[in-house]
Design a protein that fits this description.
single chain; 301 residues; mainly alpha; 0% strand; globular; disordered C terminus
Amino acid sequence: MAADPTQSLPRQLFVKVKVLGGAALQRYKNLNIYSKLFVWATLCLYIALGSTFVLVGPDRIGQNLYNFAQKISHYPYGWLLLTSVFFVISFPPCVGHTTLITLCGYAYGMKGFYIAAGGSLLGSAVTFAVLRLLFSRRLRKWSQSSEKWQALETVIAAKGLPLIMLIRASPFPPWVYSNALFASIHSVALWQFFLATFVVFPKIAIFVFVGSRLASLSDGEQRSHMDTTTKILNVSISVGGVLIAAIASWIIYRLMRKEILHLQGIPPEIDELAAEAIEEAEEGAPLLGHHNESRTRYDSS
């Protein structure tokens, strides 16, 4: 249901929220029991984090996080510890990739970029190889039965590395599910996935930089030596960095959808199915669990 352009802005927003809410509820109903439990566990985690933020206070939380990051940076192999965590969170359904990148900035400043970039690159490559190796049989079965997945494989095979890089740079699907998504697509080779991961390095650099700025604001001693202008400048830079990353991610996502939906030589219905497969990657990737399979198949000829 599209919003009527003659309606007032509040009414249009209400209609839009109602449509999105209905779509989200329908997607939730289609999830299996394990996925629903994961959704509730994630919701409880965010509620707990929000409650902790309110009860403990941002100053104490920031100081404790700064102290923790400094302990890591002073460990002889602190960089190796953070790199190891990147390997863990690259496997679904783990979360926290952006948070860990920011922690690298907290602990090591801009030098943390090398840890975050290297950990992300190697962690995702290992995830790709392990999932592809362990679930090759399920992958073949899924590819033969899922209409959307066949469409996605057709589109990626036709466009190759440029489209893989565009999807990799997009915020949807998120990092961990993007790893599983590409491992699920038989036409994507490990070397293509490895090269495509380099396109996320600018985003990694931004969040490492934000982490380095937040570190100086979180430490009470450093903050006490800052004048008001310096504090405002650091906050503005941090917020601006996040906004730039968010805007760039949204633009890339729109470009990705446009690229998929307007591929020359590919029927429009195949393009649409491929775009839907990308959007449903969190719940439809064959390597993430048991899901309802499409009963229809498209004729690739």
